[in-house]
Amino acid sequence: MTRKNLVLEGIPASPGIVLGRAKVLAEKVEAQPYYCLLYSPEEINDEMGRFLKAVEQAEADLIVLKESLSPEYQEHAHLLDLQILVLKERMIFQETQRLIREERYNAEWALFQAWQKVRELFKGIGDPYIKGRIQDVEEVYRRLQSILAGKEALSLSSQEPVVIVARDLSPAEATQMTSSQVLGFITERGGRTSHTAIIAQSLEIPAVVGVDFATREIATGDALILDGLTGRIILEPDEELSHSYRARKEEFEVFKGEVAQSSSLPATTMDEYPTQILANIELPEEVELGLKYGADGVGLYRTEFLYLRQRHLPTEEELFQDYRRVVEAMQPKVVTIRTLDIGGDKFLSALEYAPEMNPALGLRAIRFCLKEVNIFRTQLKAILRASAHGRVRVMFPLISSVREIKDARQLLEGVKQDLEREGLPFDPRMPVGAMIEVPAAVTLAHLLAQHADFFSIGTNDLIQYALAIDRVNKQVADMYQPLHPAVMLMIREVVHAARVARIPVAMCGEMAGDPLYIPVLLGLGVAELSMNAVAIPMAKHIIRMITIEEARKIARHALRLVTVEEVNDYVDQEINRRFPEIFRFGRTMAANHAI
Ligand code: PEP
Ligand code: MG
Known about the structure:
48% of the residues lie in helices and 13% in strands. It has three domains: 6-28 and 154-235, Glucose Oxidase, domain 1 (3-Layer(bba) Sandwich); 41-148, Orthogonal Bundle (Enzyme I, Chain A, domain 2); 260-593, Phosphoenolpyruvate-binding domains (TIM Barrel), CATH 3.20.20.60. It contains 24 helices and 16 strands. The two termini are 38 Å apart. By secondary structure, it is an alpha/beta fold. Magnesium ion is lined by residues 397, 437, 458, 460-461.
């Protein structure tokens, strides 16, 4: 059977086109755990010693790995830190020891049983943060099993640059790649929001994930084309195809260069209408990326990570140091700190909560904070303290009533008084915003505006709740439609309420960073957009190519259409007609990091 021009389809995970040869990473030989019972106390002691030594070695290996990261990849060191923490996680570390001691299992089997329990616990959780954490635990589990079996860790080093093909790549493995060694990568597993895909984007290495049977279909040495814009892999391409892809690659590079030029320029339309393009960040390390891509500030600092990446609740001082770092790095630009959006399936390991039937509708975000007021106060105090070091705004997630924002503000006022008593500096006029992510908040926007200094529309959740589409459920992903007439009308209503109350309105859901939607959003009156940092150059490029009048015309027409299909067709046509280059490359670039 000829494999010439054989096409494999996957999910585009990081943009770019690569023509090169494959290096298939041998299936990680799974170190098989075996079952064996220990009889004497000496055997139990020896086994315990073997396990503890394996943990020690794994820790040492991870530290070496971390130290060998070149400076440009240092921002990913936290993933290795996370794995070092997982090594000592109670559910793996202590449970394995307990099983050796009490059940008299050998180390491999005890570790396997502990890992199975963790897996059971995490089953069915769809949240990307948690998913990332399972991957980390799994990698730690594999690393320990390999050490116990006396196997070497996987090595990615290779003489000539290659396209790595693997069943799966962990975030830690991805951080070992450098673009001089690795042209791109293809994996069978993984999704758009997996840590590995996010790392590929920030390393700017083209990648396609979720390619079924990649390691079976592709052999080391095969020539291939990897199209990280469409998610297509072409094996053994003929000269004609190679030629056309080389041309497409060149065009893409030129396009990327042009787009990049926009990143340091102001986000002003052709008719001088000013807009603001800001970055969404999850970790302090990401500030650098925001600055590199020309962010006008941080429009959404998701603060859950510091709570999720350690076992104890972070202290006020730890939070303060994290926030201060971001605020000082962004000076004099604004940093919008979103208070803890935890609960549901983004749980805190330091707290015990009963499992919920519908986590998205459960004790989440501001509801959680208003119940756990001590946790909330600690965070508010850290945010206020950071406000003494630059321009800080705070915003509350998932507001669904006036009561909630009033209660949250009251707590904030109390914390201000505490700080005054303690003589600690803060900005007394720090703006307070409400995130609009629940349909009730849209309906009440005119009332909420009386208690908020700004609005930020969180479309990831607003669309989920307005259209009743679980944002992490693959089965209904095609129904997740940002241009649904109901969503557009909601955005219009929020903008209207904000205008009447003379407060600014921003958007920080993924919709805000998609080139296809930006003209509609501007036309609807949202002039502050916050997005994944890598999407910023393209967003600025588009804004600099249109007039506010054009954008308003597009929005007006879109609002008159009745079905989402009509709106999509209309917007596709308009954008394609006015900005064909966006459709050629930009659309897929943005889709790469859509939720
Ligand atoms: C949103 O819901 O759009 C949002 C920005 O918040 P998150 O994605 O963190 O829920
Ligand atoms: Mg949200």
